[in-house]
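Study this one:
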Amino acid sequence: MRAYADSAESPSFAAEFAEHLDNLLVKLDDEELVRIATDKWDGYTNKEIAVRLGTTLRHVERALNLIRRIWSKDCQ
């Protein structure tokens, strides 16, 4: 997750970006959703995330849809 904040951007941009990501994760309020979101940010495919969690691909897809709904409320 923090890899995005380690870009060539200014330190203040990186700090602001990292803070925004942390705020998004807090909104999830569920450890599994946080793990799925961070795994996705780290570049894992949905299938890889399912294997890492020991769950089904469909479960991961549903969780990602829920994450999108939770975060889209923040953008309204």
